[in-house]
């Protein structure tokens, strides 16, 4: 009997990690030996890694049923689209508000999927949760009869570092919807306080916004959703900020390197870096390329993975956008770590746009490259370390770009699914050096992004505080 009890105690935590219900039934004979054991478990998780509390009221469909309908040429959303009448009545911000508490501090087994190897919160998993949260929020705004997809993610920055494992509060609501097909959802992650205990400014971990687009389930074309009405001056200010951001993004696309050439300052910078390369390899010059200067081509990391149905969204045949974000973030982390031979610390994620969906069964290719370092390579001086401090090791900001594309299993034409840009700090003095024209354009684009984000982030500290909110 003692052996039976010990086995049951050891097995129970293992099966508690799956979604309930779980049953462990043992019977023993008179000699105390286990004569039979019956184990059964049923998982209700529709997307791997997402907190089970982030589900909406719509019933999920097992993949085997969705696959059968797909083989028969039927659309999953057809019945939903035709059995519900669309309601385009304007909605209030509060109508879409949603709040979920992630009990990491109270549930050690749940924290297993949220904690990294250094004992801190795994940000990639949090980003995946936030995409699921935005899907719930936008559905409360649009109502039934539409298919909603993640179109873009705005800049993500850490407001405060979180160095302990505690319950987290996810919250958000629709903050901008002008009556077209898109809506902006603002999400927050904060330390969860006890019932009735007021929150504090330092409780806020991060804020980010998602742009969701509503599609007609049958035609897959954009369709109108209810516009947002504001009830207070504060809500009006939030709405106008969303409108200004939308306009700024359209203007920014007009000035990208795909549309206009580098300006005079950037062209002069490219020329100076090229001259520095020549000097490194000129036998008549004493200057040689330092060991901490790495060619951009040597920083690349690539992955390829089959997109399995366990990572699908609720529309069944496409991969969940949050999973896509998580994969790019963790590859960027590995790229920065491989480049610096040190553990990176996350600083920010730049805005990104999802250009094409990723179907279940396709192959997703990700390529990460260190595109820029701050301080830049031209500030390197062998006689004086410009990035040193007596308080600790030097810190370098490392900007990583991740290119994403997808192919069908038959390896047809590849489609670009998006570009993702992440910035980390590493406790090393290390610089990246472009060589080809394409690498110079990557360098200039990343430099623009870093300069644009400098206003909202304090300059890189020269003191390593040892706080690693990383992978």
From TrEMBL:
GO cellular component term of the entry, any: mitochondrion
Transmembrane segments: none
Annotated region (Disordered), positions in chain: 19-51
UniProt keyword annotations, A-Z: Hydrolase, Repeat, Transit peptide
Residue spans of biased composition, Low complexity class: 33-47
InterPro entries: HOTDOG_ACOT, HotDog_dom_sf
GO biological process, any: acyl-CoA metabolic process
Domain HotDog ACOT-type: from-to ranges: 91-218, 297-430
One function term, GO molecular function aspect: fatty acyl-CoA hydrolase activity
Entry's family note: Belongs to the acyl coenzyme A hydrolase family.
Protein name per the record: Acyl-thioester
